[in-house]
Amino acid sequence: MSLAEAADRARHDLGRYVALQVRWVGADGPADALREALDADLRHTRRSPGGDLGVAEVWAACREGLSGADPALLEPVDGLVARLGERASRLEALDEGALRETAGWALACAEQVRALARALAGPPE
Amino acid sequence: MATLLLIDDQDRTAELVRRAMPEHTWLGPARDWSEAVAALRARRDVDVVLLDVHFDLPAERLVGLPRDADERTLARVRRRQGIEILARLRRRLPDLPVVLMTSREGVALERAAERLGVEEYTYFLDDDYVDARALRVQIEGILAARVGQEADGPVFWGRTPAVRRARARLAVLARGRLPVILGGPTGTGKSLLARHHLHPRSGRKGKFVTVDLSTVPRELMAAHLFGSVRGAYTGSVADRKGAFEEADGGTLFLDEIGNLSEDAQKMLLGVLQEGTVTRLGDVAERKVDVKLVVATHEDLGEMVRSGRFRADLYMRLNPACTVQLPPLSARRGDLVRLVDWTTGRVAAGPQLRALIADYRRRAGLGEEGELQVVIGETLPAATPGRLLLLFPTRVMRALRRHPWPGNLRELAMTVENALAFTFAELSGLPLGGRADVVQVRPKLVRDLLRAVHSPATEEGDGWRLEVVVRPNSTLNHLAQDVERQYFTRLWEREEGDFAAMARVLMGDPENARKVQLRFNQLGLKVRALRGAEEG
Question: Which residue does chain A place closest to B11, by CA atoms?
């Protein structure tokens, strides 16, 4: 798989789903709805017959194909995914402010993955 | 409310769309092409498809994957699986709106979709930024356009490409000065189109005047169309305007133009050339400005070739702009929606309103209220005041199989009769478990269809059998076709008693076994006939 293909896959598998429900609820939406959305987006980012994958696992799978990419492109995503993974592990304990901050990170992560895909995009088919 | 099918290998979007737009029926997610086909076969009333592009599926579930595909090809096919599915969808349902969930950045994907030549019905939803609002705007925009396409007052356009083409031509022809020829079999809605579509769009302030030339005596046609002065013919006791003068400034619709007498053809040509009419028995020319629309179920070109219609008049009628309406048998893709739409219209008509109101009152639904047509087997939950009219799958199967020689008119009549009989039957019965549901019985519909078109119908003391003769039909085929109809009718009359059939056919009930053998050889199945009878 080329870097462009791996980045496109990351855009789809992570960029699309890491903030899918958060975007629908809105980062300023009701706290309960936001917590539920973050649960879906961060703990069940990708669903498969073999079980659900959380945000860190999805990124780890995508990152394998991106090992040759400029680290400067990957680091922002690495950082955001690490923070999101940590927040995902204690979602129930987060207060409203932390929930909104986490939602913002999820949206930022989606944007970073898109930027990565744009940077590594190959010529149009 | 619309029916939307989601085709996506993931179910997260499905959960969101169901929650965000609960007013619609969401089907799926169909996780691959074969599941999509199954879903579309099961529900033929899908309004919009929401289609993902990237499908993370095992190779055996992908379409468009070369046999010797390597890993890289496999990855590419996965990334573009939605495009492959779209291409296949287009071959089956060329005008079904499909929302491709792909980023605007995926230019290559857009180009691929455009190459399919279906951009008119393909929409893009930027999946990177999709949210409930964006999706709602997109879907409602499509549905709004769709409502415009589907029905327009008393005209149902549907999605059949031939009707859509006709509509596009009519939009252009309505405003011009040229005459319009509406062609198509009887009952396809030609006069309805002329009155409710062409005339209102012609921009003309005058009246819409219609003359059905099949009902006007040939010797009176000229006077009827062009007017007459007192004494112009026996019985003409006063000066009288003709249809052209009545329609001055408006639209004149001449139905069944093929019936026009020779004299009237010549005079009509003069009117089209000069823009004036001269009443019978008069010399004064009167200027008329009329948009002429003519209709025929016949082939006017063929009538010209056989000398029954003037070639010069035919050319004046603008044959290049003939708008041909297809028979209902060529609009089967529209049938479900047509039944729904027709039911709504006939139920609101004077014939049925009282019957339905009476039932509603008995069922405690109030005299007036929502009437929803349900096609298939799945009933929605009861809602206060809402009456559900259920057309089960078997009814739809019968309607689909029917050849509809009377076209839309026959469909409206069948639906109206089915509803009238259904509600009339119910009026004498106690209410069932779900009083808000009225089911149209398959057997009733089959009987109604058989009454107007049956391969073997009662005629006097015998049966009329019909055969379709095709250029390659062998005598054996024709004989078997007749034999099959005769056996079927006899089986029905003798209530499945082969001995009784043998008595009729061979003069000896002992030959029942032979008759049954022949019955089987003809491809007839007792179970199928029983099923048809029981409904």
Answer: A47
Beta strands in B284-383 (DSSP E): 285-287, 291-296, 323-324, 371-375
CA-to-CA distance for B444 and B419, rounded, in angstroms? Answer: 10
**Is B185 in contact with B175 (CB distance < 8 Å)?**
no
Please, are residues A27 and B19 in contact by the beta-carbon 8 Å criterion? Answer: no
CA–CA separation, B22 vs B452, rounded Å? Answer: 42
The string of DSSP letters for B124-173 reads EE-TTS--HHHHHHHHHHHHHHHHHHHEETTEE--S-HHHHHHHHHHHHH
Which pLDDT value is given to residue B8? 92
Give the closest residue to B447 by CA, choosing from B381, B408, B492, B480: B492
Q: Please tell me which of the candidates B76, B103, B131 has its beta carbon nearest to residue A23.
A: B131
Residues B40, B36: Cα–Cα separation, whole Å: 6
Which residues have C-beta within 8 Å of that of residue A58, sequence separation ≥ 6?
Answer: A13, A14, A17, A18, A45, A46
pLDDT at B213: 92
Q: Are A13 and A61 in contact (CB under 8 A)?
A: yes
Q: What is the model's pLDDT at position A8?
A: 84
Q: What is the pLDDT of residue B193?
A: 93
Query: Is residue B266 within 8 angstroms of chain A, CB to CB?
Result: no
* Greater model confidence, B170 or A113: A113
Residue with tokens 């999605």: B159
Residue B233: CB atoms within 10 A of its CB come to 13
Mean pLDDT, rounded, of chain B: 84
Confidence bin at B117 (pLDDT 50/70/90)? very low
Strand order in the sheet with B291-296: B208-212, B251-255, B291-296, B180-183, B323-324
Q: Do A125 and B129 touch (CB under 8 A)?
A: no
Across the interface, whether the CB atoms of A117 and B16 are under 8 A apart is answered no
Tell me the pLDDT band of B451, cut-offs 50, 70 and 90: low
Look at A15 and B128 and tell me if their CB atoms are within 8 Å.
yes
CA–CA min distance A112, chain B (Å): 12
DSSP 3-state assignment of B464?
A: strand
pLDDT bin (cut points 50, 70, 90) of residue B534 is very low
What are the DSSP calls for B483-515, one per residue?
Answer: HHHHHHHHHHHTTT-HHHHHHHHHS-GGGHHHH
From chain B, pick out residues whose CB is under 8 angstroms from the CB of A8: 79
Q: Which chain A positions have a beta carbon within 8 Å of B132's beta carbon?
A: 24
| Count of beta carbons in the 10 Å neighbourhood of residue B324 | 14
Q: One-letter amino acid identity for B504?
A: V
Q: Is B468 left (phi over 0), alpha (psi -120 to 50) or beta?
A: beta
Spatial separation of the C-alpha atoms in residues B491 and B79, rounded to whole Å: 58
Numbered residues of chain A with Cβ closer than 8 Å to any chain B Cβ: 1-2, 5, 8-9, 11-13, 15-17, 20-21, 23-24, 26, 40, 44, 46-48, 110, 114, 117-118, 121, 124-125
Would you call B79 an interface residue with chain A, using a CB distance cutoff of 8 Å? yes
Residues of chain A contacting residue B75, judged by C-beta atoms under 8 Å apart: 1, 5, 9
- Cα gap A81→B64, rounded to integer Å: 35
SS3 call for B26: strand
**Under an 8 A CB cutoff, do A1 and B12 touch?**
no
